[in-house]
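On clarity, I found the account of how folds are encoded harder to follow than it need be. What matters is that the chain and its backbone geometry are given together, residue for residue. I therefore recommend that a typical entry be quoted early in the introduction. An entry of this sort, consisting of the sequence and the corresponding backbone structure tokens, reads as follows:
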Amino acid sequence: MRTRTAAVALAILLGPLAPVGAAAADDPVVAVVEGEKVLRSELEAALAELPEQYRQLPLAMIYDPLLVRVIDRRLLAKEAERRKLDARPEVQAALARARREVLGDRLLEAAIVEALTPERLQQAYAVARAQPGFAVEEVRARHILVKTEAEAREVIAALAAGADFGKLAKESSIDPSAARTEGDLGFFRRETMVEPFAEVAFALEPGEITREPVQTRFGWHVIRVEERRKAPPTFEAKESELKEQIARETVNALVAELRSKARIERFALDGSPKPN
């Protein structure tokens, strides 16, 4: 199970709740509640707590209901203070826990931001690239796309009789790019194509043409593989993954260092001494 610290690290990568040291101009006042200012960063923090489908939305799209939510929280908190609920021991303990979590999260954020330098990312990419299996298989293929299975079988028969694939693609394919590319799709990876197109294409050898039509949601395909190769993913394709890797490494190293320096005593669930 992923530890909370690792989860926080990944959340930071996706976007800090409020940038460290943000200028006042970047964090304007969005409301005033009983004389207290509500800053935009508080809205951003509330947005980060919503389910994922809402977090993907632009802040402007849900600004009004989110602002109402934040204002209501402020009103509830002020009413709780008026009733002196913050004096209760259990509330004080919860506030102390929240303070520790915020401080810990900020420490992780600062450590990760410091670690995610362009040099560190390039170094991680170089290390990954040197590992066996880093390169992935790619296929360059042509296809002829038609509307019906019968048409696809006619294309296969014409190719078997010696018809030129490129010329036939220009004449018969309903793929809009075929007139320009003669059905050439260039190099692609398995995951970038729909199934079963990808499965069939990666099973063919260079120069081989499908013997049976291949159906996808786009229509019926006749496929010819031109080349196969193994190519390493670009830095840009791996950048997000590398950031996550460095974040985990940074969090794990920081926590391990703090544990090694700290005096820690552990007890059993009932508070009794825990055997080593």
